[in-house]
Design brief:
seven-stranded mixed sheet
């Protein structure tokens, strides 16, 4: 059974930091590219960051470049999103996604991030 379980969300003041984790099981994690998406109320889900299957390539949404870092540990079947200098506009539900072109994709259930003073 495939599972992607996000954790690490919460409430933080502007300028603060959070580290999201996504633990994967039920598939060969190291064969999949991993991504973090987010969805704010009333808005469409958007891609925040992605990392290739072996971690060699990363990409970021322009508005998070220099503040967020995506990484993965294939030995632990986990992908991370370190978020620094958080802004109110970063408030959203954050989802992880596993993608392999030949196999399809899987979504996690999401974790809430709220940035507010």
């Amino acid at each position: 059974q495939v599972q992607l379980v996000e954790s690490g969300g919460g409430s933080v003041q502007p300028g603060g930091s959070l580290r999201l984790s996504c633990a994967a099981s039920g598939f060969t994690f190291s064969n999949y590219a991993m991504s973090w998406y987010r969805q704010a109320p009333g808005k469409e889900r958007e891609l925040v960051a992605s990392v290739s299957s072996q971690g060699g390539n990363t990409n970021y949404k322009d508005s998070v470049k220099g503040r967020f870092t995506i990484s993965r540990d294939n030995a632990k079947n986990t992908v991370y999103l370190q978020m620094n200098s958080l802004k109110p506009d970063d408030t959203a539900v954050y989802y992880c996604k596993a993608t392999r072109r030949t196999e399809g994709y899987y979504w996690g259930q999401g974790t809430q991030v709220t940035v507010s003073s």
